[in-house]
Design a protein that fits this description.
- With about 80 residues, this protein is mainly α.
- It has one domain.
- It is about 80% helix and about 0% strand.
- Helix 1 packs antiparallel against helix 2.
- The longest helix has 28 residues.
- About 5% of the residues are buried.
- The mean pLDDT is about 90.
Length: about 80
Amino acid sequence: MKIVLRVLFFILLVALAFGIYYKAQIDFSTGERIIGFTVLGGAFIYLPLFLYHHWKGKRLQDYTMSEENLKKMREKQKATSKFRK
């Protein structure tokens, strides 16, 4: 999955650079279309794959502010404040 993400990112970068070049040198409207499709590909193809890859195996509860997590944070803060005195 990591290789797929890297290759797709490189393809999107090349397409974006080509779109900017095409817009400036050859045809403005076609360059805009290339840039637009590149942004859509990045938003609807690359971003979900990237998020899936990085969130796989992680619990959402570890990253939300619940009463349990607030209690853990308070206990940790009390423990570290004892060492600072």
